[in-house]
Known about the structure:
By secondary structure, the chain is mainly β. The chain has one domain (2-283): Beta-galactosidase, Chain A, domain 5 (Distorted Sandwich), CATH 2.70.98. It contains two helices and 23 strands.
Amino acid sequence: MWRRDGDAVVLELAGERLARYEDGSRLPQVHAQRPYLHPVHTLAGTVLTDAAPVDHRHHYGVSLAVPDVNGTSHWGGRTYVRDVGPTLLKNHGRQASTGPLVGDADPHVLHDAVRWFDHHGAPQVEESRRLSAHVLASGEAWALSWRSVLRADHGAVTIGSPATNGRAGAGYGGWFWRLPAAASALVLSASGEGEEAAHESRSPWLAFVQEHEGATTRRLAVQHGQPRPWFVRASEYPGAGPSLAWDAPLEIPPGGTVEVGLTTVLLDRAVDAEEAAALAADAADLR
């Protein structure tokens, strides 16, 4: 169940502490303050998230990170400027948690209302966030479901990415999971094996199989609803997430909404593509 632990909220299942939800208020402004999950563990205790890694200091565990919302960065770090390239701008917004609440009827569910502010301090987006956790029937894995509804209550919203600003193939932005470095990483998807096959695909699921100091882990993310294109990195660094604005800006009219939803299964062993697909089908029913 979720419970308070100081100024954070922690998840405990099957007698183990499996995740920690931070409000992000202590992050540097240049990293785009936002609530995030870190660390997230498997049932055997292997950590499958990274925060502020050397290669990308603005990556924080699991978060909803978007590089361009009406010109404001909720991703952190540099912004890709058309015909210029990555540029450090003073355009970093922040996502402010109003205080996560554990569900009265189900302590395995965490609710948070998150307000997104632009780099001038004006409200941009209202977000309703729901995190829920389940131990799978087999007892060998657990699943984390994330559902966010973004509402354009303060006027029209345009969500962009480096790709929509001119950097081909860099359509990142949205729900993003940064994994820790590992001795090896294999990417599996319905589109085939490997980073190249998964990147840009609309596979309904994506799996990372990693070797961590003798322990093999597997993280399988399943999209809810119509799949969006995956942004995938495995060779440069391990991380992935479905893109909100892959090759064209996402327009949300005043009062409109956009939903983001995924369920992630965490296992302490390797799987092949056939088993990953079967597990993805089971996880698709979890919310």
